[in-house]
Each structure stands twice: as C-alpha cells, then as structure tokens.
Amino acid sequence: MPEAVIVDAVRTPIGKRNGSLAAVHAADLSAHVLTALVERTGVDPGTVDDVMWGCVTQIGDQSSNIARFAALAAGWPEHVPGVTINRACGSSQQAVDSAAHAVMAGQYDLVVAGGVETMTRVPLGSHRTTGQPYGPAVLARYDGFQFSQGVGAELISERWGLSRTRLDEFASESHAKAAAAIDSGIFDDHIVPIEVDGTKFTVDEGLRRGTSVETLAKLKPSFKEDGVIHAGNASQISDGAAALLITTPERARELGLKAIARYHSGAVSGADPIMMLTGPIPATEKALRRSGLSIEDIGAFEVNEAFAPVPLAWLAETGADPERLNPLGGAIAVGHPLGGSGAILMTRLLARMRQRNLRYGLQTMCEGGGTANATIIELLR
C-alpha cells in the first residue's frame, strides 16, 4: 500500500471576530493559502487531483461547495475539482485524513487538504435558522433533549470534577503558552501573512496577554446560572484557513520535494451526543490501538480547546503527560475558526514536532453531535 506524506503546510493568521479578516470572503481567504502552497512548493496546480476542504457553516459566503470556488479564486485550472467536507469542528482534520486515505488507496497522487471558516461573515449557527437538524426520532431517542455543546461542557466538568478555578487556570495557561510560542517565532514558517486594506496581518490576534485566573473570575457563566463555562475558558469565534499538500514519497521525490511527516494512522469515533465533547477519548484510544503505539510514544498532543474541560477530561482518561498537551497554547487563546481548525492544528503539531525533533504527534478534536477524529503523524525530517 502506498504511504501518504505531508510535504508542506500553511495557514493564515487567525483573526478574531470583527477583526483583521472580517472583510475577506471565505473563497478568497482559502485561495490565499492555496496560492501560498503552490508558491512554496513549485507544484503545478493543474496536477492536483482534488482539493478537499473543510467548512462547517455552509450557507451564504460558504455555500455551494466552497472548495471549488477556492480553487477558482486561486486561479487554478478549471479541471481541478474540489469537495467540501463537514464533520463539524473536525471538518478539515477529516479533509487531511481523507486526502491521506485517497493517496494510500492509490486513487490520488497529489491532494490539497485544508479548510476555512469566516465566522464573522457567516455566524455560528446561521445554517439552522430555518429548522433544527435532529428530527423527531433523534429527539425521542434522547427524551427531547436540546443538544448544546456548552451544556455538554458543563456536564463534562461535573463528571470529571473540574472546578471553575481549574478550568480558568487551564485557560490562562493557554494564553501564556500561546504568547511564548508567538514570541519565539515557531509559527513563522507556517503562517502566510495576508494584506487587508493596505495593512499586513501576520499574527494570531485573539491572544490576550496577561490573562489570569483573577481576570477570568469576573466573567459570567454562559450556559448555567451557577455554571463553570464562560467566554474566557471556551474557544474564541474566529476567521482563518489552512492548507496542506499530501502525496506519496515517490511523487514527492519526482517533484523535488522533501516530505515533512508521514500519515501514520488515524481513527474516528462516536460518543454520547448529550455530553457530546468526550469523543477525543475513545478516538485517541482507537488510533493508538491501530498504530501499535502507546500514549508514552507520542511526543506532542494537540487536543482542540473547544472548551477547557475537553482537554482536561481527555488528559485524565488517557494518562498522557500534561507537559506534552497543547504546548503552544490553543483555541482558548487564539481562536477556533471551525472548518479551518483541524488543518490549523496540524500546522501547530508539525511546528512543535520539528522544533523538538519528536518522532510521533497526535491530534484530536471534539465535534458537534458527539464524534471525534484522532490522527497520528510521524516526523520525517
């Protein structure tokens, strides 16, 4: 079976809601990273077999197969196709996984995978304005429960005994780690600056330096009057895009490219859709079983910080080394542009592995409806 390798990975800086990327259409934002990928690798875009693109809120600016319009906006030949993937927050992680699977199956030789979300222009939940997606049979199965990720985060906090103080400690640590990572320049090799209205945007702008438990304590709970989840220990609404070039080792050599990492293994899993956000736990276990690796073999973990209890519950159940968890900060500090986050996390994981020469890295994301992806990659250089 052919292997799948990543030869390059790029992303935009992450823009906060109503921030520097607010005026940029999702197709143009996507085209920006597609263009950068071609410029950096020298690959002829006409040889790309498919553009696999994650996007969650597929309405308005992001409707009608945004992957196709991203390729056209980038000026790529009309024969290059595109497909838009929705696995909720894990959409672009699924795009990466699906691209690797297609290459390993021998169906494709060269694929661009990634995703986008412009949450300023296409608000969270706007695709549900004309109905609700669950249907009477699902509601009957769960006694009419109105599914909510925020309520799920509260339930996780209760089940794992996570106090508000512990959640706020984790959130403040995310900001501190992200600040240190940005200042170190570790993201510079992957971030593609973008110019908007004459101003060059180069750095993730959601970061709030100096965030502390004391400042977070002033915020009101968002989902329960006496709850522990609030805006400060949840991910930020954001805009952003990322893209990866995936191929075989043989094709990479033909193109004069050196692979960064090998797609080692991956898994998807479902979990209780009411608690909803625990999927990364069984997905991680499944990916490790398939890989033949142990949790101790993994040098870095990226567990998406949708809400602080998600990575903390994952940590408690997996027994992973907390020093290896989200070492560069996460979505609480810099944002979570839904459909782009899986690919963005992969650029972060690659950056950490290359910085520390770590052989294996694992990425996992909770997803609406109670599913999760887990992906393991192996560093090659």
From TrEMBL:
Q: Mind listing the UniProt keywords for this protein, alphabetically?
A: Acyltransferase, Transferase
Instruction: List residues of the Thiolase C-terminal domain.
Output: 258-378
| CDD domains, sorted | thiolase
Bilayer-crossing residues are none
Domain of life assignment: Bacteria
The protein's matches in NCBIfam families, at most eight in alphabetical order, are given as:
AcCoA-C-Actrans (TIGR01930)
Which family, according to the similarity comment?
A: Belongs to the thiolase-like superfamily. Thiolase family.
According to UniProt, the name of this protein is Thiolase family protein
Instruction: Please give the organism.
Output: Streptomyces hokutonensis
Lineage of the source organism?
Answer: Bacteria, Bacillati, Actinomycetota, Actinomycetes, Kitasatosporales
